[in-house]
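User: My collaborator sent over this chain with a note saying "see what the structure looks like." That's all I know about it. Can you take a look?
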Amino acid sequence: MSRPRRSAAQTPAPVQRGRGRDRHGRGIRSSATGPYLPPLQTRIDTFDMTVASTVDYLRSVWPDELADARFEVAAGPATVIPGVGVERWAVFPQERRIVLYRLPIQRLSRLHRNDDLHRRMVIESCVFRAIAELLGKDPWDLAPDRFRHF
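Assistant: Without extra context I'll predict from the sequence alone. Here is the result:
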């Protein structure tokens, strides 16, 4: 048996699926920020930029002492020492290397005000204290002129 033929007027239109689909009159989906906003910065990006800018500042103040020092960022320490807690950084003086642990610094710090400025200050203070430990100095001695406003 043969099928009866349909005329062109009876043939249903093909359904378009995929990229141009319009759901409930909302239009095509786009990124969360839209086309006119800059890309969002993540906590990892902000942490890395804060560490880099603080290290650059201290290298400009102590160029000879920090010339061959290496700085690394890791998610967290491999081991936790019982009774001591979670380290925020590790200093390896023989290798002239400092490892900053991002997650303990970001999540275990007790801030009295949880905003961008105070989060940045915690990161900067950890960098200062780690470099002071490497150089055998007091953290306040690393940038003495920075704190003299009078």
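A starting point for your reply to your collaborator: Helices lie at 43-61, 102-107, 116-135.
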